[in-house]
Amino acid sequence: MKINKKKAKEVLQPMGENFFNCNRVSAGQIAKICNNAALGIQMISIIESMTLGQRLGIDVNTLNDIYKVKEFFIFQSLLIFLLI
Fold it and tell me: What is the total count of domains within the chain?
């Protein structure tokens, strides 16, 4: 099936600004599932680490302030790329 990328972008443009060509029909669904799985795992890890910190005596608001720092997320992203 031939995909008209220009027409598809025109139709999808109101829904968002980032578009990726996954090179086959419905492959975007696979990418979305993988992205949602990664997001879920990341959310669970942050919740678990906050629970651990709280049980060890650190205030949850302090941990939250640490997690909001840009460098924390950059480091986390670097770890992910090192695993690939």
Answer: 1
